[in-house]
Write a structure and sequence with these properties.
The chain has 541 residues and is mainly beta. The protein has four helices and 40 strands. Among the domains are: 38-128, Immunoglobulins (Immunoglobulin-like); 135-205, Immunoglobulin-like.
Length: 541
């Protein structure tokens, strides 16, 4: 019996012990199982190649973690992978490497850490190409079936490539200082490339033959990475639906372009990136760049066409200190086209909605010639015309229209003639025309109209004009400064709507000794004499 009891007690002890162990086991927390993160390198693609001159590159990657742990990254980068991270413990999924050199292969990898475990990515590489010696030519794709390339030391260049489907060519073994000619001839296309030429002066010259349109930041970056020094055609930049254009820095290798056309770009604040350009074969158009505040092209020497800077709401400064010639029009604010219509004054059109309302600082220190029209329209902060102080005359129309802050045009004192028309209209704070006292000839129309505070004309030496219109200037009292005027063409004389004008004795010499071929119309002024009255001493009230 005793042995039985002992056996029962032993069994109970064993059961109790097991129960306690089971209880203890149930109280211990379950050990969490960590899932390793994953990582994939995105860009640049493995074995990618970039043009010579590419100095930086954005490395990107992606990572995933099942537990959504905070992930940190170590980046290893170099010609050979270093033993220690190039940069460590970063949380971003990208890193920009700089100082890249030509003809070099770079390797990189990333290690991700979730706080528990680390995972290493595959190793990838990319290469910066060797800078080829010679002149690199790339041309616009005009959907031709093939292209012939002509090249030589004179305009009668020889065909050197036939029926190529490539859009580029490298000219090598060139003599420094020699001029070379080339032409690309498309086959199966009506498009015609102009013959072009270049002086071989240094290594690294790269030419894009034709036009190029860049519509977003990526396109600007990709084109800029090719390091072109010249675009023979138009450079057009106008944002598309992405509206992400912020800077043009990638274009800083450009030295020559056929033309520049920048329009409707919200994010651009300057033209940095085009600042090394020295020659523009045709025109420059900077219009409707909402947030641009400055335009500095201080290496630019010549513009073969027009310079049009209009409708830029926040533009304050324009600087082109080496520019000597504008072979087309100078348009600041917008273009005005007008016709004088006898007693109805003028009519025409203005291709601008708001001009450049904040422009006040314009410097053209070396500008000597403008061979087209000059249009200064609706620059509401412009106080003077000092940027034109080196000009000696106008080759076509000169229009100063609706510049509210303008008080001083004395910088025009070197002007002696106007090849076509001269118009001063709606400049509300202009009180005199000092600066025009040396002008002798205005070949077509002389229009002075709707200048609310204008008091004196200051055309002391004006001898000849085809048509004279002085109208709707409420504060002009006399026109004594026109005493040198002797010849009026078929356009005639129209003076009307000047509320205080009562002294016409400045026109005595014109009507007594001079010649007026057209009509004389004097009406709706304070005093309205006839031409006979002016010639016979009845010139003032």
């Amino acid at each position: 019996m005793r042995n039985k009891l002992l056996k029962i007690l032993l069994i109970l002890l064993v059961v109790t012990s097991c129960s306690k162990e089971s209880m203890n086991d149930s109280l211990e927390p379950e050990k969490e199982i960590n899932t390793k993160p994953s990582i994939t390198l995105l860009s640049p693609n493995n074995n990618a190649e970039f043009e010579a001159g590419t100095v930086e590159q954005l490395l990107t990657w992606k990572a995933e973690d099942a537990e959504n742990d905070v992930l940190m990254y170590d980046l290893y980068f170099g010609e050979t992978l270093p033993n220690t991270p190039t940069v460590q413990n970063i949380s971003d999924l990208e890193y920009r490497v700089t100082g890249l050199e030509n003809n070099t292969t770079f390797r990189w990898k990333v290690i991700v850490n979730d706080g528990t475990e680390s995972v290493e990515s595959n190793e990838q590489l990319f290469k910066i190409k060797e800078e080829l010696k010679g002149v690199y030519l790339e041309w616009q794709n005009v959907n031709a079936s093939a292209y012939d390339l002509y090249f030589g030391e004179n305009s009668a260049s020889e065909k050197i490539v036939s029926n190529t489907k490539e859009l580029s060519h490298l000219f090598q073994d060139l003599e420094v200082g020699k001029k070379y000619y080339y032409k690309v001839v498309p086959k199966g296309s009506s498009f015609v490339f102009d013959e072009n030429s270049f002086f071989y002066q240094e290594q690294g010259v790269k030419i894009f033959d034709g036009n190029t349109s860049l519509n977003n930041q990526d396109e600007i970056t990709n084109f800029g990475q090719k390091s072109f020094t010249e675009i023979t055609g138009a450079l057009r930049i106008q944002q598309n639906f992405r509206r992400d254009i912020r800077e043009l820095g990638w274009l800083q290798d450009l030295l020559k372009v056929g033309s520049i056309d920048l329009r409707y770009i919200d994010g651009l604040t300057s033209l940095y990136g085009l600042h090394n350009i020295t020659f523009i074969k045709q025109g420059v158009y900077v219009r409707n760049i909402t947030n641009i505040t400055e335009i500095e092209l201080d290496k630019l020497l010549s513009i073969g066409g027009s310079l049009d800077i209009s409708d830029n709401k926040n533009l304050e400064k324009i600087s082109m200190n080496k520019l000597s010639n504008i072979w087309g029009d100078l348009i600041l604010g917008g273009k005005v086209i007008f016709l004088l219509n006898n007693t109805t004054g003028y009519s025409g059109s203005i291709d601008s909605s708001f001009g450049n309302p904040l422009v006040s600082d314009i410097t053209f220190d070396n500008l000597n010639n403008i061979y087209g029209n000059i249009n200064l329209y609706k620059n509401e902060s412009l106080e003077n015309l000092n940027f034109l102080r080196n000009l000696e005359g106008s080759y076509k129309d000169f229009i100063i229209w609706d510049n509210d802050a303008l008080t001083d045009i004395s910088a025009l004192s070197k002007f002696k003639s106007m090849a076509q028309s001269f118009a001063i209209v709606k400049n509300d704070n202009l009180s005199n025309l000092i600066g025009l006292e040396n002008i002798t000839i205005v070949a077509w129309d002389m229009l002075i109209s709707e200048n609310d505070n204008l008091e004196s004309i200051n055309l002391d030496t004006l001898d000849t004009t085809s048509k004279l219109n002085i109208s709707n200037n409420p504060n002009i009292q006399n026109i004594s400064n026109l005493s040198s005027l002797r010849r009026i063409g078929n356009g005639g004389v129209y003076i009307y709507g000047n509320d205080k004008l009562n002294d016409y004795c400045g026109l005595y010499g014109l009507y007594e000794y001079g010649q007026v071929n057209g009509t004389t119309y004097i009406n709706n002024n304070k005093y309205n004499p006839t031409s006979w009255g002016i010639a016979n001493g009845y010139c003032r009230q």
